[in-house]
Amino acid sequence: MMAVPEQTVPEQICGPAVPREGARRPLSVRDVQITGGLLARWQRTNREASIPLGLRQMERSGAVPNLRLAAGEAEGEFKGYRFQDSDLYKQLEAVAWEHARQPAPEYEEFVAESAALLARAQRPDGYLNSHYQVVKPDKIYAELEYSHEMYCAGHLFQAAVAGARAGTDGRLLDVARRFADHLVEVFLTGGDDGVDGHAEVETALVELYRLTGHRPYLELAGKLVDNRGKGLIKDSGMGMLYAQDHLPVREAGTAVGHAVRQLYLEAGVVDLYLETGDESLLECSVRRWEDLVATKTSITGGHGSRHDGEAFGERYELPPDRAYNESCAAIASIHWNWRLLLATGHGRYADLIERTLYNAFAASTSADGVRFFYVNPLQRRSDLVEDAYLGRRREWFACACCPPNIMRLVSSLGHYLATAEPDGLAVHQYAEGRIVSGDVALRVETDYPWDGRIAVTVERAPGTEWALRLRVPAWSASSSLTPGDDGYAVIRRAWKPGDTVELELDMTPRLVRAHRRVDALRGCAAVERGPLVYCFEQADQEAAVDDLALVPGAPLRVTPVDDLPGVGRTVLIQTDALAVTEPEGGLPYRTHHVATTTGVTATAIPYHQWDNRDGGPMRVWIPLS
Ligand SMILES: [Zn+2]
Questions:
Q1: What is the pTM of this model?
Q2: Which helix (H) or strand (E) is 366 found in, with range?
Q3: Minimal CA–CA distance to 275: which of 323, 219, 320, 197?
Q4: pLDDT at 387
Q5: Mean pLDDT of all residues in the chain?
Q6: How much distance in Å is there from the Cα of 325 to the middle of ligand 1?
Q7: pLDDT of residue 386
Q8: How many CB atoms lie within 10 A of CB 436?
Q9: 399 alpha carbon to ligand 1 midpoint, in Å?
Q10: Most C-beta atoms within 10 A of its C-beta, which of 196, 424, 498, 509?
Q11: Which of these is catalytic: 275, 310, 354, 528?
């Protein structure tokens, strides 16, 4: 390949998604320490339980043995799916961010061993995909509509970028760059117009460009985005909408098809805007965001209404029982919203990150960190007729895209809490901890999300005037600080060490109803408190969950519990409700309904804590009496 002058590389901030320039600067995961509360607990469980489980699974699931086959160092059958390599890449990324937070020799060892194996498995021309090298060497790049070759490459690039920023073994970056250079040779300078059926490599190529300054990576990402929607992807049998190949990216007005594909694509689209300034990319992505939020988003922030194709449905098609809400879609949504927040500074994106983080995303992992949901519905009946990926959380999956994806987000959570602004610092998410940005250091004291009081104390300040921005979530009916139109309260002064500002949010529980066009939820209500969506689990009820009816106007009583067995610390919400039973038998359609009504206490638990007990029925949405 012709030598291309590398652009100067800015000093690397240790975190995912760091634009080369821009008004808002992300902070290093080392500079945002979460020391207490719910998020700290998640990070502790991730480190002590989830990541060790993930590392064991790399061997068992076939991810690592497959690469030994590709390297010619072992004999046997390829195990798993054609995208099995991506599990290892996401695991490597999780370990890199974890290493940045708290270095550990076993992490360095895992990365070094993996990088060495990948280097041995990689073809001399840079190509690397164990499935195609071992099983279908004659089909390389020949079935991009479902091959996931570039999807896997993208996860390799993200792992390598994470390793480079976190300071683990540099050989992983060498492997990644050789593969990226190969993609550039084939699909950019080589003139092949192929596009991967599963978007992901776009956002990853932009990150690799940010790290290396090598412009062809950015140009290839741009070409892949420009080429989507031109019918260049063959129909994999799932239709053109499935891979977002039905319309050019700048023309598509609504999210369609496979939810994770759409959402990773959006992250790449906004990444490209952040590096190129191409306004048409930001415009189309914001247009789809507004439509998505208004018509295709679960109350938990989850995305994907259809099991068929793990896909978005039509507008207002939001069934609670059949909601798919893949854990990976929640993660991809957080990635996208983070980039939109960096691009615009608008708090609505941080609001959606919060909703998704504490609900759709958090529910994906059990309290002990060793079982995971792939699908996150808003209702479970007692039948559990569908086994695969439904019902209860499980330790691992044949298609294990979600667990290591969850781990990489939890280990990098600090990155999403705050940004450096041109005139100060903005705090987007609240957790007990310490935030350092240049010559500013803040201490955040809070029991969020259980409590709505947040105290921010300045520990270090430059002595000149600067602005502290604190997000006031849209769910808070009132607050001690008044936000501007962008959702942030701005306090500008010459801060001195010891200065404290307090934000008090309205934690009164709320009864929430859906837009009347959401047919599946008409006549129902859900309970929220602070950023948490609640659900009603059978384990806490006096009557059958499916018979409960909420009474509008009935007080919602807040009941903190220090240690609920199986769950841990929680805040329950109780209310006087009704149990309504109808006779069963015959068709469930009647002209005259005969019902028996009994007064009961209904008890709700935060949705993210469900399924940590007996596996009984659960509902987020309850009919109103
Ligand atoms: Zn997944």
A1: 0.97
A2: none
A3: 219
A4: 61
A5: 95
A6: 10
A7: 67
A8: 18
A9: 8
A10: 196
A11: 310
Cα within 13 Å of Cα(459), Cβ side: 12
Q: List pLDDT tens digits, range 510-568.
A: 999 999 999 999 999 999 999 999 999 999 999 999 999 999 999 999 999 999 999 99
Cis before 449? omega within 30: yes
CA 66/CA 76 separation, integer angstroms = 9
218, 276, 215, 222: which is closest to 5 by C-alpha? 215
pLDDT of residue 2: 47
- Establish whether 106 is a catalytic residue: no
Task: Tell me whether residue 401 is one of the annotated catalytic residues.
Answer: yes
The Cα–Cα gap between 114 and 319 comes to 42
* 374 CA distance to ligand 1 middle (Å): 6
* 431 CA → ligand 1 middle, Å: 27
Cα–chain center distance at 449: 18
Q: Which of 14, 152, 328, 401 is catalytic?
A: 401
Distance 209 CA to ligand 1 centre (A): 26
229 near 244, Cβ under 8 Å?
yes
pLDDT band at 442, cuts 50/70/90? Answer: very high
Task: Identify the DSSP state of 390.
Answer: -
Residue 542, phi then psi, degrees to nearest 5 = -85, -25
Beta-carbon count within 10 A of 587 CB: 5
Residue type, 272: L
Cβ < 5 A residues, ion ligand 1: 326, 328, 401-402
